[in-house]
From TrEMBL:
CDD domains: F-box_AtFBL13-like (cd22160)
InterPro entries recorded: F-box-like_dom_sf, F-box_AtFBL13-like, F-box_dom, FBL60-like
Organism: Medicago truncatula (Barrel medic)
Domain F-box: 18-72
Alphabetical list of SUPFAM superfamilies matching this protein: F-box domain
Cited PROSITE patterns: FBOX
Name of the protein in its database record: F-box/RNI/FBD-like domain protein
Pfam families listed in its UniProt record: F-box
Length: 159
């Protein structure tokens, strides 16, 4: 028998099957989940009944899409569904959107970002190649007093 098999067989079964993550408090699990992209955070809700409400308690939303020329209506509907499922009594600590759009309907995008701003977002980071946003969105972004961090990259302002 190899040395590694001997070591494994000497560990009591109870110790091997102990789930250390499940013993953590919800607040710590939510903090850990806040470092994941939102897509992965939502995917954890299928792990168990306990995990389902945890993903809606994560206040860091990271929508990073590396696909160039993604259809905006698909992304907007996905982000809206996540925003609606989050606890609306708490502010969003961080909202990151990084993707590339061919923008056919700028109103969808504008309404989405305004919805995130209305949720008292503290950090807003938009990194979007080929997107032109309108003055309505610009005025909402630049007059919002809740932001502690504002990062805008690759955006083109239109009149």
């Amino acid at each position: 028998m190899s040395k590694s098999k001997k070591q494994r067989s000497s560990i009591p079964i109870e110790e091997c099957e102990y789930d250390r993550v499940s013993s953590l408090p919800d607040s710590i699990i939510c903090h850990i989940l806040s470092f994941l992209p939102t897509k992965d955070t939502v995917a954890t809700s299928i792990l168990s009944k306990r995990w389902k409400p945890l993903c809606i308690s994560v206040l860091t939303l990271d929508f990073t899409d590396h696909t160039i020329f993604t259809e905006i209506t698909t992304i907007c509907s996905h982000i809206y569904s996540v925003l609606l499922s989050c606890d609306n009594t708490l502010p969003i600590l961080s909202f990151r959107l990084k993707c590339c759009f061919r923008l056919d309907e700028p109103n969808n995008f504008t309404q989405l970002i305004i919805a995130a701003i209305q949720r008292r977002t503290e950090t807003l980071e938009l990194n979007m190649l080929f997107h032109t946003f309108d003055m309505k969105l610009a005025s909402n972004i630049f007059t919002c007093r809740k932001f502690t961090v504002l990062k805008l990259k690759l955006l083109i302002l239109s009149t």
